[in-house]
Specification:
By secondary structure, the protein is of the alpha+beta class. It is built from four helices and nine strands; from the N terminus they run βββαβαβαββββα. It has one domain: 3-Layer(aba) Sandwich (Glutaredoxin). The strands form two sheets. The chain has a seven-stranded mixed sheet, with helices on both faces. A two-stranded antiparallel ribbon has the order 6-7. The relative contact order is 0.22. InterPro entries: SCO1/SenC, Thioredoxin-like_sf.
C-alpha cells in the first residue's frame, strides 16, 4: 500500500458485538462514514443524507453496505452504537474497537478527529472530525469519496454512476 492509498485492513467490532474485518464487507460496495454517537449536528445530518441517497437508489441500494465507524470508541460501545443506529439509521452497521484499532483505521482512511474540551458535554469533551463518505468497491478497494456538501440527490447520482462502472474500472 502506498502512502496515498485510502483504506486497508482492519479488525473491529460491529454494533452486535461481533468481530469483523474488511473481508467481511467484501462482495458489495461499502459506503463508510466516520463519526460518533454523541455528535450533535454533522453525524445526524450526514447519516440522514446518506440514508436518503440510498432510498433514492431504490433496489440498487442493495449493492451498497453503509458502515458507520466511530472516532470515539471510549463512549461508542457496540450497545451504544446499536441503539443509536437502530433508532435513527437502521440501514447502517456500526463499527467500534479499541482506541488503537480505531486510530489505525482512521489513519488508513486519512480521517481527522481529535478530542477537545467541551464544557457543555456531560463527559466534558467533543470529537470534531472530517465528514467525508468513502465508497469502497466489492473488493474493498477505494473507489471514491463524497463531501458532506453533496445533497442526497447528488450523492445518489454519484453512487449510481459508480455502480454502473465496469468492475475493473476505478476511474
Amino acid at each position: 500500500m502506498t502512502s496515498t492509498a485510502i483504506g486497508g485492513n482492519f479488525e473491529l467490532t460491529d454494533h452486535f458485538g461481533k468481530p469483523v474485518t474488511q473481508a467481511d464487507h467484501e462482495g458489495r460496495f461499502a459506503l463508510i462514514f466516520f463519526g460518533f454517537t454523541h455528535c450533535k449536528m454533522v453525524c445526524p445530518r450526514a447519516l440522514t443524507r446518506i440514508s436518503e441517497a440510498l432510498d433514492l437508489l431504490g433496489g440498487q441500494a442493495e449493492a451498497i453496505r453503509p458502515l458507520y465507524i466511530t472516532v470515539d470508541p471510549e463512549r461508542d460501545t457496540p450497545e451504544v452504537m446499536r441503539a443509536f443506529l437502530e433508532n435513527g439509521w437502521p440501514r447502517f452497521t456500526g463499527l467500534t474497537g479499541s482506541r488503537a484499532d480505531i486510530d489505525e483505521v482512521r489513519t488508513a482512511f486519512k480521517v481527522f478527529a481529535t478530542k477537545v474540551a467541551d464544557p457543555d458535554d456531560p463527559e466534558g469533551y467533543d470529537m470534531p472530525h472530517s465528514s467525508l463518505a468513502y465508497l469502497m468497491d466489492p473488493q474493498f478497494q477505494y473507489r471514491a469519496h463524497y463531501p458532506d456538501t453533496l445533497d442526497a440527490a447528488r450523492l445518489a447520482d454519484a453512487l449510481r454512476a459508480e455502480l454502473a462502472k465496469p468492475p475493473e474500472s476505478t476511474e
